[in-house]
Design brief:
Layout: H1 3-18, E1 24-28, E2 32-35, E3 42-45, E4 53-57, E5 61-67, H2 76-87, E6 91-95, H3 98-105
Parallel strand pairs: 5-6
Antiparallel strand pairs: 1-4, 2-3, 4-5
């Protein structure tokens, strides 16, 4: 299994586990580059370094979840994004499983 396939599987599990909760809202945050249909231009979308899953928990706290396979490491742009989110009082989680998300959210009353 390719690492992107593994990370996608973990993202899907997290979205299924937390996506229907009423005490938070989460969504998939895509970034990248797309070529226009005429092939003459490229359009960039998303914020460089942003997490794979974005959201908000009750009380208005920003939530960011970066999904990595077991051996995956954050890129420098992702670390910078994490510092920015945390400096503003948001929650940033590097998750390798659904359990990682639960553990990180426990201090905010999530079980």
């Amino acid at each position: 299994m390719l690492s992107t396939e593994l990370e996608h599987s973990i993202q899907t599990q997290i979205m299924l586990e937390f996506g229907q909760r009423t005490d938070m809202k989460i969504w998939r945050q895509n970034t990248g580059v797309a070529k226009t249909l005429d092939g003459n231009r490229f359009i960039r979308f998303g914020v460089v370094g942003c997490a794979d899953i974005s959201g908000i928990i009750k009380g208005g706290i920003r939530l960011e979840i970066e999904v990595k396979k077991r051996t995956g490491k954050q890129r420098e742009a992702q670390k910078a994004f994490q510092r920015m989110i945390e400096s503003m009082g948001g929650i940033y989680i590097v998750a390798r499983s659904v359990d990682d998300v639960y553990k990180a959210l426990k201090p905010w009353g999530f079980d």
